[in-house]
Amino acid sequence: MTAQAPSAVILVRATRFLPNPATAADNAFQADVPVGESAAELSTRALAEMDAVAEALRDVGVRVHVFEDHDHTRPDSVFPNNWVSTHAGGVVGVFPMYASNRRHERRGDVLEMLKSQYRVQTIIDYSGLEPDGIFLEGTGAMVLDHLSRVAYVARSHRADSHVLERFCTDFTYEPMVFDAVDSGGVPVYHTNVMGCVGTDVALMALEMIPDERRREQVRERLTVNGRTLVEITEHQVREFAGNAVELAGRHADGSARRVMAMSARARASLDPSQVEVIERSCEILAVDIPTIELAGGSVRCMIAGIHLDPRPATADTPTDAVVAINEDHPVTADGRFVHEGR
What we know:
Layout: E1 8-14, H1 39-59, E2 63-69, E3 84-87, E4 91-94, H2 108-117, E5 122-125, H3 138-141, E6 142-145, E7 150-154, H4 161-171, E8 174-178, E9 195-197, E10 201-204, H5 212-223, E11 228-231, H6 234-238, E12 245-250, E13 256-263, H7 264-269, H8 272-281, E14 283-287, H9 299-302, E15 304-305, E16 338-340
Parallel strand pairs: 1-2, 4-5, 7-8, 10-11, 13-14
Antiparallel strand pairs: 1-15, 3-4, 5-16, 6-7, 9-10, 12-13
């Protein structure tokens, strides 16, 4: 197993799902709710898709922590990777969010679970920058190479360069920043829709980087240590082929396996040669989530990977793969940026 592929993840099971009106202006991947479909019908379908993702991950041996969300004012809470990230060495990041109605997605119970079940030394909280109009939406805004310590970032107002520099200093990453636009000149709102980085393979829509010199620099950085690059097209990006994540699971006999989790729609957009290259490195795990994709995100957006060492199991440690916590506690900040774990 590698530092790139976490073996445990956080998912949020949101009982009320709706594409967020507050993010529609800059998220070109959002779609309208089907005509005639009620909010209750939409939520029911989305819940079934959330459960299908959790079950598929458990089936391949990934540990899944599921948090219930019954708050109807958080339409995007199914995408926790935008507000929290975890890192080797016991460090957790908490991030400032662009849309005001997303800022109360941050949950103290998630952080408490991480501190109680994993070795957390420090929580670095950048959310205090929101009043200053400075945002960095976690592993949506950043695609992180945990092996080579590179943060790939498409410029947008959801990825401020100043807080990115601070993050890279605090977490020891090299920033690799570039402009990325679609064929109509619209900036890519989140880097993780245009690509992902795995242990031995990366997917990236280099054609969406208009500066040829920068495009080649990104290519070279992705492949310099022997990683294979699968170039995807803008059309495949719109089918969410870039919104994938590599995870570490287990076979039934306990042996290790790596999977590339993505949506069924994303998998269908890949051509056979691309699939062959990916499957040299890891299995493709595809789950059908058409309702959730209406919100402009896909499987990778749903998953907050846990790159932390687990604490030794105790009598109070859950024995199954799911920890369901119903309480919803907002994060409280004693200081502006750094809070100590236990």
